[in-house]
Every structure is written in structure tokens, then in C-alpha cells.
Design goal:
The structure holds 2 protein chains of 2 kinds. Chain A is α+β, with helices and mostly antiparallel strands. In chain A, about 25% of the residues lie in helices and about 40% in strands. Chain A has helices spanning about 1-15, 25-40, 110-125, 155; strands at about 20, 45-55, 60-70, 75-80, 85-90, 95-100, 100-105, 135-140, 145-150, 160-165, 175-180, 185-195. In chain B, the strands form 2 sheets. A 13-stranded antiparallel beta sheet of chain B has the order 1-9-10-11-12-13-14-15-3-4-5-6-7. In chain B, strands 2-8 form a two-stranded antiparallel ribbon. Chain B has a single domain, classed as outer membrane lipoprotein receptor (LolB), chain A (Clam).
Chain lengths: ~210, ~200
């Protein structure tokens, strides 16, 4: 009897979060909403929790920090727990502060890195609706929308085969999951997201 | 000719010596024992280390992740802080497999160096060939992938492994801040190439 109750609860909760495909109209509505939102987003500041999933581990490696974004292309990821590490994407350079040790990495000559950098910025805003680069699938449940962006680019697919982005009903990014060809993934969940509050440029210097 | 041969032998004996002799270790003629390295031996633990790799004038960081899958079977993976996987290796007793490696790291010599270093790090038990005493430290000589290794135990705690060729140390593995069979800090230092790997546990 107890088993039956458990299975019923499991089925109800699975249903609650089940994603069903969107209609074309729903997909167009979401796309327009996200694109409008992205175009009017001047700044984002948010907390984040990152889960690195490797199939052979018992638990995901969890790191936490804060994100700052300023339009069009300044972005800073600051990891706070369990170590202090920050990386600023600015022009064609990565500015790294690793527990006080500062270094720069020039990514100008690395086409792959430049492409990833652009994708990271786009994924923070959610605006990755590029049909030439991705095949795109839309899903929904009562609480959120999920879009699968599967890479068509052979070089990119060697690193990341797909981005799965979850949007809330306002069109803000709640979660980004970057899936590697092996099935391992990095999942980033955003919380306390604040849009368009002024962010000082000084934050983006090392 | 014979005289030349004898002189050569004589010179050879005196010029070579041995690493234990050079370091002043006293030979201890007890029976063969089994060495134990406990630091990556618990299959219930996901070992995660914040890592710094200094190679010539380059430096980069990331997370080194080690997991004992079963007896004589470990996975060793390295990711950037942001989660990008740089390499993922499988070690079994007599085999080694590259599951994944980014193009920039896919170089034979680099893979060989990493393979040997990680093999030393995760090998749990070895039969000793000789045993020495040096001050308060017990020193054991053994062979791993056909290379001579010396294991240093201070109060029965593994504190150092030296890979040695002739009388020279080639690589040192130094374990410190040891708690419950976890070495919170590990430094791997190469002496014949400019390579230093510093690991700090974030478990």
C-alpha cells in the first residue's frame, strides 16, 4: 500500500514538471518575448549556483557566485564559494583573478573561444535564436518554458553539443544547461536576478 | 684492454652510487612489505581539488576531480572553474584510456607526463624492494611503471613520493595538511622540466 502511494506521488510530481512541446504560435510568442527582453536589458546582476555533472561522480561539483552583465558585451563571473575566482570577459581578453593572482588571457586569436564567449553572453540573456547555428526545439510546462538549442557547428559540438535554457513566464533566463558530447553537463541556476540597475564600469576591471 | 675494462668498471661503481646512499639513508633489512597510499582509495568520496598548473611561463587553473570507481579503477578529470572539461582519463591496473581531451592538450608528451603523475598519485598499494631509515622517516623503495620510486612515511603517514633516476630526483609528490586520509594540499614538482602542479582540496 505504501509503495502504491509512493508511486502515485511520484507520477503526480513527474507530471507536474513534465515538459510538452510548444505549438508554433507559442514558440513564436516566447521567442519575441525573450528577444524584446534581451534588447531592453542594459544590465543584469544575479546570484548563481553552478552544478558540474560528471557521470562517474556520486555528487555534482557545486560552486556559487555572482554574475554581472552590462550591455553590449561586458560580463563578469565571480565565484565565491568554495573558492574565490573571477573572470571578466572584456573585448578580446579574459581577466582572471584567482584568489588574488591576476592574469590575462588573449582570446583574439582563438576562434573557438570567441565563439564560446559570444554564446555565453547570449545565453545569459537567453537570445540564442539563431537557426543557422542551432536546431531549436520548444517545450513548456505550467511554470516555465524550456528551449533546446542543439549545435549544428561541428567545431562547437566537440565542446558543447547543446544548450538547454529554461525561461520564466516573463522571458528571463532561470537556468542554462550546457551539455557535452559525452552527456556530462554544466548547469547554472540563477537567483535574485535584478535587471537594469546601474552597474559601475569599475566592476569590470581586474 | 683488460686493465681499461677494470678501470671503467671501477669508475662506474664509484661515479654512480645510489640515491639512498647519496641521501644518507640506512638500509633496514626487514622483509618485504606492502606500501599503502590512502589518499584516493575511498570509492565513496568524490575528490575535488582546486588546481594550479605552472608549465614553463604559462599558468592556468581549474578543478582536478578524482574518483575511485572500483579496485584498480580510477577516473581523473580536469575542468576549468567555469566547468569546461579539459581532459578525462580512465586508469585501470594495466591500462590507460583518454576519454576526452581538448585539442590544445592533445599532445603525446603532455599526456605521457600527466598519465605518469596521476598513476603515481592514485596507485594504492605496492610491494617494496628495500626499506631505509632516515632520521625519523621510514623510506621505502619500489618500482612503478618501471621507474624507481621512494615513499617517505613520517609517523606512518605518507608525506612524500620521489620518482628517481640514478641519484637524481625527477619528480616529487608532497602531501600535507592530512586529515582522515585526505591530503588537503598536494604539490607535484618536476625537476627536469619546468612543471609544478599545486592541488588544494575543496571537499
Amino acid at each position: 500500500m505504501r509503495k502504491l502511494v509512493f508511486i502515485t506521488i511520484l507520477m503526480i510530481s513527474a507530471n507536474l514538471f513534465a515538459q510538452s512541446p510548444m505549438s508554433d504560435q507559442e514558440a513564436t510568442t516566447l521567442k519575441t518575448l525573450v528577444k524584446t527582453r534581451a534588447a531592453t536589458t542594459k544590465t543584469i546582476s544575479s546570484d548563481f549556483t553552478q552544478y558540474k555533472h560528471l557521470d562517474f561522480l556520486d555528487n555534482d561539483v557545486i560552486t556559487k557566485g555572482q554574475l554581472a552583465f552590462k550591455s553590449p558585451n561586458l560580463i563578469k563571473w565571480s565565484y565565491i564559494d568554495p573558492f574565490k575566482y573571477s573572470v571578466i570577459f572584456k573585448n578580446e581578453t579574459l581577466y582572471i583573478n584567482d584568489e588574488g593572482n591576476k592574469s590575462n588571457v588573449d582570446i583574439g586569436s582563438n576562434k573557438m573561444f570567441k565563439q564560446l564567449n559570444k554564446l555565453i553572453i547570449n545565453s545569459v540573456k537567453g537570445d540564442m535564436f539563431d537557426d543557422e547555428a542551432f536546431s531549436i526545439e520548444y517545450f513548456k510546462n505550467d511554470y516555465s518554458n524550456l528551449v533546446h538549442f542543439t549545435s549544428k557547428d561541428k567545431n562547437l559540438s566537440k565542446y558543447i553539443s547543446a544548450f538547454h535554457i529554461t525561461f520564466n513566464t516573463e522571458g528571463d533566463v532561470e537556468q542554462v544547461k550546457m551539455i557535452e558530447p559525452s552527456g556530462d553537463y554544466t548547469k547554472i541556476i540563477f537567483s535574485n536576478r535584478v535587471l537594469n540597475n546601474p552597474i559601475d564600469d569599475a566592476i569590470f576591471s581586474n | 684492454m683488460m686493465r681499461f675494462f677494470l678501470i671503467s668498471c671501477f669508475l662506474l661503481i664509484f661515479s654512480c652510487g645510489s640515491y639512498p646512499k647519496k641521501e644518507g639513508f640506512q638500509l633496514d633489512n626487514t622483509s618485504q612489505t606492502t606500501l599503502v597510499n590512502p589518499y584516493f582509495s575511498n570509492s565513496e568520496i568524490d575528490y575535488v581539488y582546486k588546481s594550479k598548473i605552472e608549465i614553463y611561463d604559462n599558468q592556468f587553473g581549474g578543478l582536478l576531480i578524482i574518483k575511485k570507481i572500483s579496485d584498480h579503477n580510477h577516473r581523473v578529470a580536469f575542468t576549468t572553474e567555469m566547468g569546461n572539461k579539459l581532459f578525462d582519463f580512465s586508469f585501470t591496473e594495466n591500462d590507460f584510456k583518454v576519454n576526452y581531451i581538448v585539442d590544445d592538450f592533445d599532445k603525446g608528451l603532455l599526456i605521457k607526463i600527466l598519465k605518469q603523475d596521476f598513476k603515481t598519485l592514485i596507485t594504492e598499494s605496492l610491494i617494496t624492494e628495500s626499506q631505509y631509515q632516515n632520521d625519523k622517516v621510514d623510506v621505502y623503495e619500489t618500482v612503478l611503471y618501471n621507474k624507481k620510486h621512494f615513499y617517505f612515511y613520517d609517523s606512518h603517514e605518507l608525506v612524500k613520493i620521489n620518482r628517481v633516476k640514478g641519484t637524481k630526483e625527477k619528480v616529487s609528490f608532497i602531501f600535507s595538511n592530512i586529515n582522515d586520509s585526505i591530503a588537503d594540499k598536494i604539490v607535484i614538482e618536476h625537476y627536469n622540466i619546468k612543471l609544478k602542479i599545486t592541488l588544494k582540496s575543496i571537499n
